[in-house]
Amino acid sequence: MITPRVILITGTSRGIGRGLADYYLEKGDIVCGCSRAPASFEHPAYTHFELDVSDESAVIAMVRTVVRKQGKIDGLLNNAGIASMNHALLSTAATAQSIFATNFHGTFLFCREVAKAMVRRKTGRIVNFATVATPLRLEGESLYAASKAAVESFTQVLARELGPAGVTVNAIGPTPVPTDLIKSVPKAKMDALLARQAIQRFGAISDVINVVDFFLSPQSDFVTGQVIYLGGVTG
Ligand SMILES: NC(=O)c1ccc[n+]([C@@H]2O[C@H](COP(=O)([O-])OP(=O)(O)OC[C@H]3O[C@@H](n4cnc5c(N)ncnc54)[C@H](OP(=O)(O)O)[C@@H]3O)[C@@H](O)[C@H]2O)c1
Asked: What is the DSSP string of 153-191?
């Protein structure tokens, strides 16, 4: 009998993270997820942890619990993220702090804790979440783009550090996908953004799943340190 994979996904209460959780549960994987809000769904193979990804002791406790109960973590999807649209000169220090706390610090903490368990088994897949806002140098998104640039850089260095241990670390950079994250972006700004893509449409959650699936696949054990942007945006 094949043992199911154990996939840890952050930010599963809605949006892309919820779509990823539904997809991997449907495939027969065991999924452990988290968000600050309580679980928005139930499934026999799903366990929810209510936490903030920037809370170091909560992240350590979650990863320890998952490893103790499931015995392993095969895949980590660092999906939890927040955005803030504002001109840099109008942005507050508190906004900068909270964007970096969730997007970078949260990703760093989960990578560090989960990688310890993966290295022990000499196998594992980590997928971090970037954005096309970084390579497009998107005006009005300076803090968000910078926090995700930090995620990209961390992904590339961590890939080198974990390569010898059989753990791959890659990132996906979605284009706009219609979720709560982008609902406050004005239409004119969104149209201008889509016009800068080679393929000028919104992304779908299935577009994200396609790339994540590729990174998670056993055959992708020679693919690490890569950032794949959707929509034909180049780095
Ligand atoms: N949608 C897009 O257009 C787009 C484009 C490029 C990249 N991305 C990236 O894709 C990822 C998912 O985005 P999305 O559109 O699905 O966003 P979303 O709909 O706003 O969902 C974000 C998820 O992350 C959780 N979350 C946020 N901050 C958290 C924290 N501090 N601790 C724990 N959980 C937290 C949220 O739950 P709680 O609020 O309950 O904590 C929610 O479940 C993000 O990393 C985002 O940057 C999205």
From this structure: HHHHHHHHHHGGGTEEEEEEE----SSGGGTTS-HHHHH
Across the range 136-159, mean pLDDT stands at: 98
> How far is Cα 235 from Cα 71, in angstroms, rounded to an integer?
37
Residue range of the domain that includes 30: 6-229
SS3 sequence, 136-158?
Answer: CCCCCCHHHHHHHHHHHHHHHHH
Q: How many domains does the chain have?
A: 1
Residue 235 pLDDT:
84
Q: For residue 114, is it within any domain?
A: yes
Instruction: Indicate the SS3 state at residue 32.
Output: strand
Catalytic residues, by residue number, are 144
CATH number at residue 104: 3.40.50.720
Alpha helices in 29-86 (DSSP H): 56-70
Cα torsion for 212, 107, 159, 74, to the nearest 10°? -50
Ligand 1 atom closest to Cα of residue 202: 3
Assigned token pair, 36: 């600050």
In the predicted model, is pLDDT for residue 217 greater than 80? yes
**pTM attached to this predicted model:** 0.98
Strand-pair category, 124-129 with 75-78: parallel
**Ligand 1 surroundings by CB, under 6 angstroms:** 10-17, 34-37, 52-54, 79-83, 102, 106, 129, 131, 174, 176-177, 179-182
Using alpha carbons, select from 67, 80, 83, 1 the residue that is nearest to residue 33. 80
| Domain contains 1 | no
**Residue 4: alpha-carbon gap to chain centroid:** 21
